[in-house]
Amino acid sequence: MAVKRYRVAIVALPIILTLGMLAWFFSFAIGESDAQTTSLHTAVAKPEPDTAAGAQASPGPSAIEPLGRLSISRQSFARGGLGSKALVTFTLRNDNGFAIKDPEILCAFRSDDGYRTERRRKIADTLNRKSRKTYPYTLIGFVNVKASRAKCSLVTASRVVN
After folding, report:
1. Structural domain count of the chain
2. Are strands 85-94 and 126-127 parallel, antiparallel or unpaired?
3. pLDDT for residue 10
4. Is the model's pLDDT at 43 over the cut of 50?
5. What ranges in the chain are assigned the alpha helix state H?
6. Which of 86, 119, 151, 162 has its CA 20 to 30 A from that of 106?
């Protein structure tokens, strides 16, 4: 008699745990997740008009857009962990006459069934002027395990003020 109860417990316990985990998973609000990205915005600083002279002031160093001559020259996509981590290897090329810091990239991952995931990543590094730097296997974030293609682009960067 006791053997039957243990058999029932051995079969019922994993089923109850699985149902509990599924209930928790479906009750999780995806809209509240920090992993979701917002829409892409790139702001260009505009010079303030000189109110005393009535004319516009010349743009200062912060008004020069560093993304103009900053580009991603090479990129490749690999998986890490159990297939849900996106590892991107990319090369940033800075053709500006000044150094830039903290470039931010936006990567879009797509699967064959049409599912799309976007992740942003700020690179805490400085690129010298007229240089390039490769960032191997950079963790961008968690993506759908069915994602098969990735495309990254630059979003923002800051100019290094000497």
Report:
1. 1
2. unpaired
3. 83
4. no
5. 2-27
6. 162
Q: What is the pLDDT of residues 8-36, one digit of tens each?
A: 778 888 888 888 776 666 654 444 433 33
Question: What's the sign of the alpha-carbon dihedral 34, 35, 36, 40?
Answer: positive
- Token duo for residue 156: 């923002």
- Within a domain: 53: no
According to DSSP, residue 48 is labeled: P
125: in domain: yes
Contact 123, 105 (CB under 8 A): yes
The CATH number for 116's domain is 2.60.40
β-bridge partners, 100: 127, 159
In contact, 70 and 154? CB cutoff 8 Å: yes
What residue type is assigned to position 97 of the chain? Answer: G
* Residue 28 maps to a domain: no
Tokens in use for 144? 């759908």
User: What average pLDDT does the segment 117-124 reach?
Assistant: 94
Q: Full-prediction pTM beyond 0.90?
A: no
pLDDT of 62 over the 70 cut: no
pLDDT confidence of residue 66:
64
Task: Classify residue 5 as left (phi > 0), alpha (psi -120 to 50) or beta.
Answer: alpha
